[in-house]
Design a protein that fits this description.
The chain is 40% helix and 19% strand. With 570 residues, the protein is of the alpha+beta class. The longest helix has 22 residues, at 285-306.
């Protein structure tokens, strides 16, 4: 299009002082703020299609930027220096950079970052050098692969590194870096397995930064530099499947990206599906299927939270004018992965479907994709080689648009072998007979099996168990003493739905030491609903902790509690 005279950028909470095009000042207007931020409309001379220009925006961010967390030294692990990290997914890049903040827009980027000399700067890009002055250091970065703005990332802190492979490195604070290096030692093996499943790795390096506890997600797939939560440091590598998930995003999400957040399942459903294929190849099919079993329970909980008739339980939710954070849930992950698992079974299994995955990546890398485009790509590939009567078994509309749980109960296809001991043990506890149990009951259980044991109890006993039963479980299995975050979270959930207030101190400690939304959001909801004292405890604890949480987590927990009836300060 020729003769463009306005450029519109997204922003939120930015103080913009000037705009220049090729050095010449431009008029601009910051529109009133909406739920999605403020449009910045820049008036320019007429621009021609293909014309290269340099647009310079002078601005400042704010201390309460949605996408940037500034930590005091006391909020870090080593408590010596301040720390900064960004989290731009889904639409928070606009709170740090005036930009076209949509996954449909991909761009290469370069950056220079100047920090105090004692600190280190890292970005979702390749390091191309640095320079030093007397009291500062400037780091230079380049990302040669086009990415959407939500994948731009920056971290600054007192950081140290350890190499764990030929193209992999772990970064963390000094007291954490050795533990993180040991925990994530299998990263290169995950990466090689992903390449075997998909295509060669395109990004050069794959480094992992273990962040302070306030990081609101399990991981974030920033190119070249995955961010992870310290809640993965279980000491036994039992939670590192999250790294397999973030590695998979190097293809599904980062190379091939959902065109809009309405099609988020094309990022996350594909990623969970391939992540579980990596687990299958490295640890066996039963481990892969136990992931699906526990994921199905997570999906059930999510549908229950939203309501079975809620738009956000579909794979194609309408998000016009809605902040994508408000729709964030397990649905695109678990319903999306199960849909792909169903498609794979329908067309003939992994030997037939995995070549399709490779072709999907090869044909769509560096591009953005839509659900409609995926359906066409699927039919173009499989219509010539799969009988029509098999393809007719796929109810696309129901899988994509039917509210509530998926149209097919996928649990009938899961290998239950690893779950069987969990179910048998849970059913003994559910029976009410407290004799014959021992600490050795859970010997040999991995983390997903422990989670499956507790979740089986919650499925069969949605109102929980008597206090005497919980006391005995904990005396034998010592769940309250575990440092494994997944086990702590599921144990505290069972205890709270059982109105077992003896866990309040442990819950408080857990909700204070980390801000991962997977844990803090449901636990605050469960705590608020715990009778008789949970409401008061949840409100007091959130008011005490809210300013140590990331702004995204703070906003979402606040919304959750208000919906339950809590009165909170702003």
């Amino acid at each position: 299009v020729d003769d463009i005279t306005t450029v519109t950028l997204d922003s939120r909470g930015l103080a913009i002082s000037s705009v220049a095009l090729d050095g010449a000042s431009c008029a601009f207007e910051v529109k009133p703020e909406t739920a999605l931020g403020s449009a910045v409309v820049i008036t320019t001379p007429a621009l021609k299609k293909g014309q290269a220009v340099k647009l310079a925006v002078q601005y400042e961010t704010s201390s309460d930027s949605a996408g940037i967390q500034w930590l005091e030294p006391s909020q870090t692990q080593d408590k010596k220096h301040p720390y900064l990290f960004t989290q731009f997914q889904a639409i928070h890049a606009r709170s740090a950079i005036p930009c076209q903040d949509s996954p449909s827009v991909k761009t290469k980027y370069s950056a220079t970052v100047t920090v105090p000399k004692e600190l280190t700067a890292l970005m979702s890009a390749l390091s191309t050098g640095s320079t030093e002055s007397e009291d500062s250091k400037t780091y230079i970065f380049d990302q040669p692969v086009p990415i959407p703005t939500y994948l731009i990332a920056l971290a600054i802190g007192d950081l140290y590194s350890r190499d764990i492979g030929p193209r992999t490195r772990v970064w963390a604070e000094a007291s954490v870096v050795e533990k993180a290096a040991w925990e994530f030692e299998e990263t290169e093996q995950y990466l090689v397995t992903a390449e075997q499943l998909l295509t060669p790795y395109e990004w050069g390096r794959y480094d992992v930064l273990c962040l302070p506890g306030s990081f609101p997600y399990g991981g974030m797939e920033n190119p070249c530099l995955t961010f992870v939560t310290p809640t993965l440091l279980a000491g036994d590598r039992s939670l590192t499947h999250v790294v397999a998930h973030e590695i998979t995003h190097s293809w599904t999400g980062n190379l091939v990206t959902n065109h809009t957040w309405q099609s988020f399942w094309l990022n996350e459903g594909f990623t969970v599906f391939v992540e579980r294929k990596i687990i299958q190849r490295m640890f066996g099919a039963p481990s892969q299927h136990l992931g699906y079993i526990n994921g199905w329970k997570s999906l059930m909980d999510c549908v229950e939270h939203f309501g079975h008739d809620h738009e956000f339980t579909t794979l194609d939710p309408k998000l016009d004018g809605i902040d994508p954070d408000d729709a964030f849930s397990s649905v695109p992950y678990e319903r999306g992965a199960n849909f792909l698992f169903f498609l794979e079974r329908t067309v003939g299994g992994d030997a037939v479907f995995e070549p399709f995955l490779k072709e999907w990546i090869n044909q769509n890398k560096f591009k953005t994709v839509t659900t409609e485009g995926f359906i066409k790509f699927f039919h173009d590939h499989f219509d010539p080689i799969v009988p029509k009567e098999k393809l007719d078994e796929i109810n696309w509309d129901a899988w994509l648009h039917q509210r509530g749980m998926p149209p097919v109960d996928m649990t009938q296809f899961y290998d239950q072998v690893l779950r069987e001991r969990s179910v048998a043990l849970a059913d003994r506890w559910i029976s009410g007979d407290l004799e014959g149990f021992a600490s050795s009951d859970i010997e040999g259980f991995n983390t997903p099996q422990v989670v499956a044991f507790v979740e089986r109890i919650m499925i069969e006993k949605p109102a929980g168990l008597p206090a005497s039963t919980l006391e005995k479980i904990d005396s034998l299995y010592h769940f309250s003493e575990k440092k494994n975050s997944e086990i702590r979270a599921v144990w505290y959930t069972l205890a709270l739905i059982s109105n077992y207030e003896a866990v309040f101190p442990g819950v408080e400690e857990f909700l204070t030491e980390q801000g991962r939304m997977k844990f803090v959001r449901p636990l605050y909801r469960r705590l608020y609903s715990c009778e008789p004292n949970g409401k008061t405890k949840a409100v007091e604890l959130f008011e005490k902790n809210k300013n140590i949480y990331h702004n995204i987590a703070k906003k979402m927990v606040h919304q959750d509690l208000v919906r339950l009836g809590a009165t909170l300060s702003n």
